[in-house]
Every structure is written in C-alpha cells, then in structure tokens.
Design a protein that fits this description.
- InterPro entries: Cro/C1-type_HTH, Lambda_DNA-bd_dom_sf.
- It comes from Paraburkholderia dipogonis.
- This is Transcriptional regulator.
- One of its GO terms (molecular function) is DNA binding.
- Helix content is 57%, strand content 0%.
- By secondary structure, it is mainly alpha-helical.
- It has a single domain, classed as 434 Repressor (Amino-terminal Domain).
- The longest helix has 14 residues.
C-alpha cells in the first residue's frame, strides 16, 4: 500500500522511520544489519537528530522502502537541472 506523508522536520522523519521499522517487525539491530549502519545511528534518526548525514539517511529510507519526493515551489527550467546533473557527473568523474 502506498501512502503520502508530508515531512517538514527531522522529528517527523524519525517518526516515519520508526513506524515503518515497527510495521515491518524489524528491531533496530535487524535494520542495522541490513543497512550496515549502527543501531545508535538508527536511534538518533528515530529521535529526530537534525545533523544526520543525508546519504546515510537516504540509504536507511531505501532499505525501509521509503522514497522521497520533493515539491518545488519555483519553476526550474529543464536546462538548469540538466546542467547541474552534468556538473555532478563531471566533478565525480563519471
């Protein structure tokens, strides 16, 4: 079942992570083993720690089957997002 949840802060994101983990009957240790992240990191995310590393958070969300989507309130021309994507590939040698 797919649902939309609006997240405006890390506390709400942490609540979503915890609810998803519990709905899947996973312990923090189970999730840590599946993601390679520490149980302490997962505890921090669930507590709404505002300084969590975004890459690790995205990895955790992916493991739980959570996809993030952004609503953008300004018009972004296609050529601007294409240029940004190209710069990232060039910077990282891809």
């Amino acid at each position: 079942m797919e649902s939309k949840v609006f997240i405006s802060n890390m506390t709400e994101l942490g609540d979503l992570v915890r609810a998803s983990r519990l709905a899947q009957r996973l312990t923090r240790d189970d999730l840590a083993a599946a993601t390679g992240l520490s149980p302490k990191f997962i505890t921090h995310i669930e507590a709404g720690k505002p300084t969590a590393q975004i890459g690790k958070v995205l990895h955790l969300l992916s493991e739980l089957g959570i996809t993030l989507r952004a609503e953008v309130s300004v018009d972004i021309p296609a050529d601007v997002s294409t240029k940004a994507s190209h710069r990232r590939r060039s910077t990282h040698g891809r």
